[in-house]
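Progress report, Aim 2. The chain analyzed during this reporting quarter is listed below.
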Amino acid sequence: MSKRIVLSLFVLFLAFSLSAQNTTFNKGDKVLNLGIGFGSTLYSGSHYTSKIPPISASFEVGVKDELFDENSSLGVGGYLGYTGAKWEYMNYGWDYSSVIVGARGALHYQFVDKLDTYTGLMLGYNVVSSKAHGTAGTYANSVGSGFAFSWILGGRYYFNDNLAGLLELGYGVAYLNLGIALKL
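Predicted structure tokens for the chain:
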């Protein structure tokens, strides 16, 4: 995703700035995000014949209000993402899957009523597994597992007190994540 698009979306959030008290995400709030990703950060290339769309779930709890004014808050929580793909070339190939497990922290700022905008970081671990098929043999191994991190820029628009639409840009299992958020 180009820097120009990310910067444009951030400026759009700033352009609608209003001075209303934060009502979308506060200390003690618990929010569950469920999403499907577009533009996977994993498994790109022409030999991937099928891909499982990236899916993710995250849970966040508000831990601090009014970081620098009444519109700001801080949240922490966990992240779980999954995607997979099949790579094939001639008579052999590999089946891959990735599970990213991590912890996230986000700075929230409410610019407009019903819109919770935030930016944050995710630190975690990407568990990669693979299985060969065809003339490459049939064995499984784990390759490429390791530390994972992501910067995120997101927003949740609340349709009512407990249900929101979700949009996140970042580098988890996908560049763009769309879904729903449920305030518990």
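The chain has one domain: 3-13+28-183. The beta strands are 30-40, 48-65, 72-89, 92-112, 115-134, 140-141, 146-158, 163-170, 174-183. These observations will guide the mutagenesis work planned for the next reporting period.
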